[in-house]
Amino acid sequence: MSDLTQTARRTVLAAGAAAVAGGALTACGGGDGGKASQGEQGAATPPASPAGSAPAAGGAKTIAKAADVPVGGGKILKEEKVVITQPTAGSFRCFTAVCPHQGCLVTKVADGTIDCACHNSEFKDTDGAVVKGPATKGLAEKKIKVAADGNITLV
Ligand code: FES
């Protein structure tokens, strides 16, 4: 009886060890497969990055359309922190929209000036120069390109 019991225990232990080994093998196999798969995904992810490849493939990002910039006025792009003006038809200029006085974003383009509402500084819409303080420095110019289709991009 005791021999049978011991045999039964050995069988159970052997089955348990096989199950553990099998489990370990399965885990290793799955782990290796997972690692290989992750490695491939990791290597493939950077080139497939939509943020990185889309602007590169299509060139510079369009920030505005020429038609959106009124003649004698301008368009303030808060996200890009730039202001695009069109002092005369077909002549586009672009400046930082960050006021050099204390860093507010300019708020309006009208009557030949780009205005900052924080302390009422005004800048020329043609070259960004100070028209009225307290700002003592003009708005830095940004280079843009206006494509034939009217798309405006930062250069
Ligand atoms: Fe623009 Fe002061 S921050 S005038």
Can you describe what's shown?
By secondary structure, the chain is of the alpha+beta class. The protein has 2 domains: about 30 residues; about 100 residues, Rieske Iron-sulfur Protein (3-layer Sandwich), CATH 2.102.10.10. The chain has 2 helices and 10 strands, in the order H-H-E-E-E-E-E-E-E-E-E-E. Strands 5-6-7-8 form a 4-stranded antiparallel β-sheet, with no helix packed on it. The longest helix is centred in the first third of the chain and has 47 residues. It starts with a helix and ends with a strand.
* CATH superfamily descriptor of the largest domain: Rieske [2Fe-2S] iron-sulphur domain
Q: Count the strands?
A: 10
Structural class: alpha+beta
The CATH topology of the largest domain is what?
A: Rieske Iron-sulfur Protein
Number of domains: 2
Distance between the termini: 91 Å
Strand order in the sheet with the most strands = 5-6-7-8
How would you describe the oligomerization state of the chains in this entry?
single chain
Give start-end ranges of low-pLDDT stretches.
1-57
Overall shape: it is globular
Overall pLDDT: 75
